[in-house]
């Protein structure tokens, strides 16, 4: 029996006597109900997919005003600002109002005293390679929610330094920030291109610089400070050895 015949099931049941026909009628009605439900389910799923696509395309950068106020308050209270004090939403605000580049520092879970050991790290060891791969995969999986064809090479913003356990990636999905920060292998996740609009002009005029020079002041390499500080640590530790070798 074709499913369209079920619509006439009640009429067939009236014109033909017998229990068997009534059972067929009921069976037809069940089939019809299932078909209608299936059609509605497909329609709902189609709408959800369209809504998801629209929500991805309509991502708008949040207003950075409250973030700038937060940074300003921390600077006044503590004399410095650390992105670890910021929420996931605040970090996303910084990313989406700058160049979308997130600096991601990684380490094996439970690793401590990085500043004292950074010059001794072997990033080519199987342990460190596995950690880097795992953290990168977290970011890649999250970003692929927006672009399934994304590759790791597409994600990397800059060439990696072989001596620092850090990589810099483009982040276009707010969920990536949360996913990374929830990992026990993450040391930090910081937007390196953001400069607070509220205080940048005053700080630049006070310090007399407007470039990415390493400094604690907001207007001069605010986002790159940690990255530059790590380079400085390595240089300070290796320079005496280098000088001794020359002597």
Structural key phrases:
single chain, 10 helices, globular, 7% strand, mainly alpha, 247 residues
Structure description:
- The protein is mostly helical and 247 residues long.
- The chain folds into 2 domains: 3-57, no CATH class; 65-246, no CATH class.
- The chain contains 10 helices and 3 strands, in the order ααααβαααβαβαα.
- The chain has helices at residues 9-15, 19-57, 65-78, 88-96, 114-117, 126-143, 152-155, 174-181, 200-207, 225-246; strands at 101-106, 166-170, 186-191.
- A 3-stranded antiparallel beta sheet has the order 2-1-3.
- The longest helix has 39 residues, at 19-57.
- The radius of gyration is 29 Å and the shape is globular.
Topology:
Blueprint: H1 9-15, H2 19-57, H3 65-78, H4 88-96, E1 101-106, H5 114-117, H6 126-143, H7 152-155, E2 166-170, H8 174-181, E3 186-191, H9 200-207, H10 225-246
Antiparallel strand pairs: 1-2, 1-3
Helix pairs in contact: 1-2, 4-8, 6-8
């Amino acid at each position: 029996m074709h499913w369209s015949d079920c619509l006439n099931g009640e009429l067939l049941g009236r014109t033909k006597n017998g229990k068997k026909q009534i059972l067929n009628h009921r069976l037809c009605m069940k089939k019809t109900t299932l078909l209608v439900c299936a059609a509605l389910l497909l329609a709902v799923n189609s709408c959800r997919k369209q809504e998801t696509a629209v929500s991805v395309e309509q991502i708008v950068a949040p207003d950075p005003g409250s973030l700038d106020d937060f940074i300003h308050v921390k600077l006044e209270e503590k004399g410095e600002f650390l992105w670890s004090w910021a929420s996931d939403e605040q970090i996303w605000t910084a990313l989406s109002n700058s160049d979308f580049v997130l600096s991601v520092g990684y380490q094996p879970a439970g690793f401590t005293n990085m500043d004292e050991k950074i010059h001794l790290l072997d990033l080519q060891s199987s342990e460190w390679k596995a950690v880097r791969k795992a953290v990168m995969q977290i970011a890649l999986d999250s970003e692929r929610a927006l672009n399934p064809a994304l590759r790791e090479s597409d994600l990397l913003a800059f060439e990696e330094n072989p001596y620092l356990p850090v990589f810099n990636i483009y982040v276009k999905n707010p969920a990536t920030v949360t996913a990374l920060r929830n990992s026990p292998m993450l040391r930090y996740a910081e937007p390196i291109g953001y400069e607070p609009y509220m205080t940048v002009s005053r700080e630049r005029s006070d310090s007399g610089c407007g470039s990415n020079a390493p400094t604690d002041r907001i207007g001069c390499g605010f986002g790159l400070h940690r990255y530059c500080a790590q380079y400085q640590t390595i240089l300070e530790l290796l320079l005496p050895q280098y000088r001794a070798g020359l002597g």
